[in-house]
Amino acid sequence: MRAGRERIPDLKPLFDALNEHQVGVAPTLADLGPRSADQAWQRRRAKYEAWLSKPAAFLMIAEQDEQAVGYAVVSIGEGYDGWHSPEGIGDLHDFVVLPEMRGRGIGTILMDAVEGELRDAGVEHCRLRVIARNADAVRFYEQRGMEVVSHIMLGRLDNSEHSRARSDDAVASQGHEERANDRSSLAPRAGRLA
Ligand SMILES: CC(C)(COP(=O)(O)OP(=O)(O)OC[C@H]1O[C@@H](n2cnc3c(N)ncnc32)[C@H](O)[C@@H]1OP(=O)(O)O)[C@@H](O)C(=O)NCCC(=O)NCCS
Asked: Which of 35, 37, 73, 157 has the fewest Cβ atoms nearer than 10 Å?
């Protein structure tokens, strides 16, 4: 069922399960290690507050015996510029079912409800990010007809002295070119004056 922002605190155990699953499949993202569960929740919770304060954004909670067993957080994001795309696309930020309840159709019901809500808002597409190593989730989305359309690349910048010197050189030579261009753009005027 659709729920308001006041339910965000109830999501903590479910978010913990999502975070645990994601860190489990990807203990590092490129070279980044995981945050503590509490830190991760504090940060994510602030994002939920921000997303859910936007127009047409929503929180969907699956409940069993009045207990939250799954949720989805959705806001409406921008369309694509290079493709014939509607202006609004449903951005599914997080989606999870409690571990002991997975594989029983709850995720399917939750996702059906998300899609229904988006359709009612006149939105035709749903978009999400999924960690490349989260193969089960990728399969779940693919079974629903979604496809991988982009890859997110992540890597730490080379911070060695050598690479710093290289980038300083690049900036310095760009400066030279700019000064040379300045001189050449001044030259004709000087010519005309002469
Ligand atoms: C992905 C997820 C929300 C699906 O919810 P669910 O209730 O397990 O899904 P359903 O029971 O409706 O559908 C099961 C399908 O989901 C897939 N699936 C993904 N993870 C699964 C799991 N742990 N157990 C069983 N099925 C899983 C399977 O492809 C399965 O299809 P199948 O029945 O043809 O084998 C849930 O498994 C989950 O919370 N996973 C961990 C968190 C996560 O990865 N979230 C997505 C982040 S982008």
From this structure: 157
